[in-house]
Amino acid sequence: MNGIGARLKLARQRARFSQQELADHAGVSAMAISKYERDKDMPSSGVLIKLAAALDVSVEFFLRAAPDLDIQPVYRKHSKMGEKAKEAVTAQIQEWLERYITAESFLPLADRQIFEQPEGFPWKISSLSDAEQAAEGLRTAWRLGESPIENLVELLEDRGIKVGLVDGDEHFDACTFWVSDGDAQPVIALKRDQPGDRARFSLAHELGHLMLDVPDDIDEEKAAHRFAGAFLVPAAVARRELGVVRHNLDPHELSSLKQKYGLSMSAWVHRAQDLDILSASRAKSMWKLFSLYGWRKQEPGILPSEEPGRMDRLVRRLLAEQVISESRAAELLGLSLSVYLKQRESIYAGAQ
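Request: output the structure for the sequence above.
Response:
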């Protein structure tokens, strides 16, 4: 995506504008926008400034060289997202990945984070219960033991999985796919500003898509859900915390477990039912209680969201080593230079 036309289309899709809507905002014709995007005509500097203002990007966005990425995010099968919303999310992911991979390109090859699929993965399953074994197998391969995962985003980044936040859509939680930049690299894009427990489950769910080989006769989303619960709370841990058989679960108990393991109260109920700790009828009673108090929409005790940090640290490293300038650092972080400089100033001000 190195031409102005492709960059213009990317920015337009990210803003959810039709060609006509962008034309109206920029004061040009829709035909002109079509020609610009197909590289049949070149916008003047004045028009380029108007387009940048309409799309809330810098003029440099249209001019900078970017890696030629062919990304095809896989959205959940039952997603209610429309095509325009999917285009907007895909464009956001594309723009973020361009900046990420460009920043990585400044590193020596030996210093780049490379994902290595553990032996035996993707794990072929023949039933939903096999997803339990796959989750435990991955915890073993990654030497996680049975302890709670303190920060799932950092764990995935340390393993070479790129994790990014996008504004998304009301019906978007997360998506995953592979991108090729020499080597195939796994990517998980997550909706920004989700409650921490929901974001963690979404991440674990998408990890399931990367780690499971699911046959056509098994619902892939259900398999990923089962994997996610088992990865965050292995069966032995769930039985140790809840017991082997329960007739009821106390909301305060679930809230405490949520804080310890970063797994939502509702996911704990699902976990208990999956493992036959709680019967289906007893689980149904719990869902009625959740509905009564509005906990199916918003649970008590919201956990803070985990933020990806690797890309930010990478850019700061390049700046410290004088590989890039401050203006280039701001661009790679997706910030205006003024906002970036204010961030820098705040760090030094806090040290005084």
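The beta strands are 123-124, 162-166, 174-181, 183-191, 212-213.
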